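Sequence in, structure out.
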Amino acid sequence: LNCGTHFVFQVEGLQLFLQQSNFRESPQRDVSKCTNPEHFKWISSNRTDRKTPDQFTKTKLEHHYQLAKVRSNDLRADEATKQTTEEWLANHSLEALGLTMEQLISLGKLPPQHVEKYSERVGIGDGNVLAELKQFPPSSLIYDLQTIIEFECGLYTAISDYTARIKWLMQGTRGIFGLIRGHHVGVLIDSSNTNLAYGRERSLRRNLLQLFEEQLNEKQIQTLYLASYGTRVHTLWPCPMQINERVLDEVKTFVSTQLKPDGSTNLLAGIKHASVLPQISMTH
């Protein structure tokens, strides 16, 4: 007997016992017997006539998982903006995603003739089968359609991610100065006549002001140091400053009004001056 029949027999036996013993002496009292068979009916999970799930509940669950996926993607995207290309590729390269040719080959299956050839040797534990297959690999492998589709979709997704990453790196000041990392940053500006001549002064000022807006602001760094070099080295402060609105205003004023051509390029003096600053990542 299955569980449903056994359960029905137990319930009916209990009702019969109660009718014959406890309520036999009180005929005036009616025993309410359940006549709805659905109350004791065992509902199998394999039934085809069961009710479909509530569409509203199903839609709510789908929206919940979609929202969770979007939030997860937003977190990963925010994390990606703080990573160098090397750090980003550690999780998004073809090797990390399992999309190399070696991994594709490992997903294939041997042709039937090779399976018959080596099945007996594999069954007895012959350890030379793998070495023999590497030395004399089969001319073809068998793949199921789902494996090929998943691998192809993975490649398309990776190419799309790489394209988006390259476009993002080429936007704004990242395409000019690169992606600046670190909490303690120093900026060393070449203010020689050669670097600021032929209209370059205006372009450099505009790019530097945009740099402080996009990458060297209060949300990105903690301390900032600024110096320029031509024939001599000119500094805005004697030491790195804690970043705040006042410091950023001083930097923008220096770039807008005080950055002017200053003779020849004494790069060695600029590097020597910057090298004595502790815990500063210089941007030249």
